[in-house]
Each structure stands twice: as C-alpha cells, then as structure tokens.
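Request: Show me your protein:
***
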Amino acid sequence: MLIRGVVAADVPALARVHVDAWHVGYAGLMPQGLLDTTTVERRTASWERTVRTQRDPREKILIAEVDGTPAGFAHTGPGRDPDAAGTGELWALNVAPSHWGSGLAPYLIEAAHEALRHAGFERATLWVLTGNSRARRFYERHGWGPDSVTREETIRGFSVAELRYTLDLRLD
C-alpha cells in the first residue's frame, strides 16, 4: 500500500473508486435518484477539472494505491464553512468497496490528518451523512467527534442531512 499525491493519470480510477464507494456505501442513505445520477462519466469530468485546476496550496488529494492501482482517496483543504476561519477540512474520503476492511482506510485517514497538519491547520472538520453509522464509527475511532452542527445539503437537486464532525489535530 502506498499513499501519494494525485496525478492526472489517476482520474479514471479515482472516478471509479468514488462512484463505487457511493453506490455501495450510500445505498439506502442517499436518495436513489442522486445515486443514479452519480456516474463514472460525471465523476471523471469533475475529477479532471479538479486535478487540472490550480488549487489552494493547502489542498491535497491523496491516493491510496494498492498493486499499482488507486483503491482510495482523501481530499483535504481549507474549511469551507462560514465559521471555519483557520480550520482545515476533510472534504472526502472514499475507498473502493473491494478494499473495505483491508486496513487501507485507517492508513489513508492518518495521511489526511498529516496533510492537514502540514498545511498548518490545528483543527479540522468533516461532514458525514447523519444516518451513516458505519462512517461515523470509523471517524470516531480516529479521534473525530460530532459538534452538533447539522445541515441539509443539496446535491444535484436532492437533499441530504449531514452532521459536522471536528478533530483537534494537535491531539491526534
């Protein structure tokens, strides 16, 4: 297992991991119509734009590579919430379902914590689906905790309920 920065050649595999993780992990948790519109083509176009675009130097896309193939990713950067001044954010962490339970996700989240620290953040946030108990348990095992801030996020016209988690990066 290798954790490294993203390169343009990763985009097709990155999109596949993203879509597969959403379709399996969010089944029954997100509106089916949203999952149906979450396609490899749509994710590929989105990741191509993201990887090509000049980003804030504190933003990192980390790839977890297994046997030469991307099997997961973490995307970190500055916090995007109105109250997030000086806070980092774990924007996304997804692992291919075929690698769930392999130990890849804990390795990847620790690398994300380190990327956030290296970017100068002492505190970080993430958003998780309120009903996603599997993800919530995972984050809690890695030091994150809910801060009781909730929101209804609209994604492509579909509403999903989310809960914010925080992490003190100085304690991790």
